[in-house]
Structure formats: structure tokens, C-alpha cells
Amino acid sequence: MIAILSSPDSFTNKNEMERIRNIIKEEGSGIIHYEVKNFMDIGEALARFKQCNVSAIVIVGGQALSSATFEYLIDKKPFGKEQIPISVLSGDDERFISQSFGAMSAQPHQDLQIILRKHSTGRLLDHVVKTPLIKIEGVMHVGKLYGLYFCTGEIMSRKSLFQRRLHQSGIKQFMQNYLTIISLLYKAYIGSRRSDDINDMIRINRNQRGAVVGRYFMVLLSSLDWIFLGTKFPVKKNSDTLNFLSVENTKDAILNTGKRMLKGSYSEHMLPGHVITEIEHARLVFNKQFVVDGCFYETDLSGELLISVAEDLTFIRLD
Fold this sequence. Notes:
Strand content: 25-35%
Number of helices: 8
Strand order of the largest sheet: 6-5-16-13-8-9
Number of strands: 16
Helix content: 25-40%
Order of helices and strands: EHEHEHEHHEEEHHEEEEHEEEEE
Structural class: alpha+beta
Largest sheet: 6 strands, antiparallel
């Protein structure tokens, strides 16, 4: 059995949910589908999946659905010590995490069709990877979130970076990335400036070391091995840490980060205005928006976020 957990509210285009239902009907037996009306239903859905002895769970919906499901899996452990492989097919524009695990289609129902075909031929679990989650505490109206990717800084003004869809063609993807990076860096380079306004500052405390306060083009924490546009991190030395990258909002730092993004990878070599390292936790204080797995959030009234490594989950790779 394979389980599909979806939320119709995740899609602004209601036809998308109907397409998902039709694909599930066409694929026939061996599938249990649970549509949650509110997040209180997730616990019941996972309990039913446990009773049916499912071999994998496909989450089809927005970041809020995936984060709540991650929270149930980690805090409640409905499957005991067993780790059920998970595939995340994000709804609408929040396609960042789907693409991180190999989804290349423009719409989630197309990726679901691929998953169900792989399941029917016994190839769905050929490629799985264990990845630690990020726990973010101090989120406005939510409290805490679980995800795989966090980013904040001046780069938040370019929302399309976190909501873009990849082209299936290699040359199209290359050209899209190249033009996006050039446009991003040009505007950031021209607009970079120093400021003493406290609202422009971010306070960073890594692994309980002394705090650093500055104005940043980008602050990023991720359990993935790449940032947006496919730029790779250095290979991690420890499996239970997060990748950390901060780039100061100065012309030299932005220019250097642009060179690495065009090259497609960061190295361990130190760059002016950059910090690239692995961490277990960080405390950030700021008044800006931030992104978790492609979805935008705000800090609570204190402006303080605690970000730490959570447990591993097993994710299915589609590529």
C-alpha cells in the first residue's frame, strides 16, 4: 500500500485537486488517499496509514501541510521506530522542496502520476535519502515549524527565487539560472548600502558563540546540499548538522557570492563578507520576513527565532 495525504485548501486552482483525485482513481488498488480538512485530521490519517501497513507516504499540498506532518512524525511517532519513506509534492508556487528531491513537472498531479507508476512497478523506493529536518521556533501565528530550508535577508525582496519552477530542458534551465543570477546580483550590487537602522540589522548567534550583528544580503540554513538556483554547498563533514551561509550586504560580498552562484558551487575557501560552515543550532533576531521551504513567514513580536537540527526523515528521490 502507498498512502497519499492531501489538502484541497493547498491549491488556489481547484481543478488541480480534481486532477489528483482522477489520477488516483485511474491507478486503481494499492492506494489509500486521505484529504485533510484541518490539521487536526493529520493524526487520524497517519494512524490509518499505520493500520494499512503502508510502504510510503506522499504529501501533496503546501508547506503548512508538510510541516504539520513532519511534526506529527517526529513528536508523536505514529509508526514507532520505523521510518516510512516520504515524498513531498508542494502545492501551487511552493515547489522548492519538490524540486529538491527531483520533481520536475510544472504541476503536482504530473509528479504524482510518476510516483504511482514507479510504485506499481516496484521502483519507487530505489532511491531514498535520510535528511535531518530543521526546527524553527518563534514563528508568528504558528509557534514552531519543521522544514528543510530557511532563508532571510535583503534577498527576500526577490520572491520569485523561492517560487520558480524548473525547466525540464537542460539548456533552458541553464539560461534561466544565468539570467536570474545576473539580474539578482545587478540589483543587489546597485542597491547595497550600509545602514545604522536597527530594522535593517540581523543578530546571529551560532552554536552559542558570541553574537554578530550586521546587515545581510542573505542568511541561509539548510539540511539540503544546495541553495536556490542549484548552487552547491561544500560536502558536509557531519550528517547531523545544518549548512549555514551568511553573505553581508556589501558590494564585495555580493560580487563574490555572484561568482560562486554562476560557477554553481561554494567552496570551503573563505570569502570576504561570507561565513560558510556547519552548525547544530542558531539564534537569529531580526524584523524581516523569512522563507521556510518556499513559503513566507514572519517572526513573532520578540523578533527572535531559534533554529536547530531535528530528527532525520527518509525522503524519496524521483530522479
